[in-house]
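Batch job 17 of 40 flagged for manual review because the log was empty.
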Amino acid sequence: MQLTVYLAGEIHTDWREQIAKGAAGLSVTFTGPVTDHAASDDCGVAIMGAEDQKFWHDHKGAKLNAIRTRKALAEADIVVVRFGDKYKQWNAAFDAGYAAALGKSLIVLHGAEHQHALKEVDAAALAVAETPEQVVAILRYTLTGALPGAQD
């Protein structure tokens, strides 16, 4: 079995790299958004021209990013959405809702401090993890049936 896993959510920590490293050797292809914050914010105006108003600047970027996000979410077998401690990640909540609407297997990743705020998002998920290691264990179990600490 081969899995395509879309890694959505916060871009300020190395959680994506931790999951990819932990999943080395598994039949997993990882996809995700553009994680260069400036490139993601400015892609619309860089490609289609400057805007005088910040709203239209952001609007252009959001639409271009949506082309990538919609395709990747549609092609994913599993969607992992990370909510971090820094900033409010409205885009992560949107990605989680979109993945749920598509019927994707959804894993939500966040610390205990966000349990109440994300209760509806968590309710839509098939798993709620607190660490990248738990996500890797879920992927390993999905692919091999092996529990943590067991020989594959």
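Reviewer: the log was empty due to a logging misconfiguration, but the result itself is present. The chain is about 50% helix and 15% strand. Unflagging and moving on to job 18.
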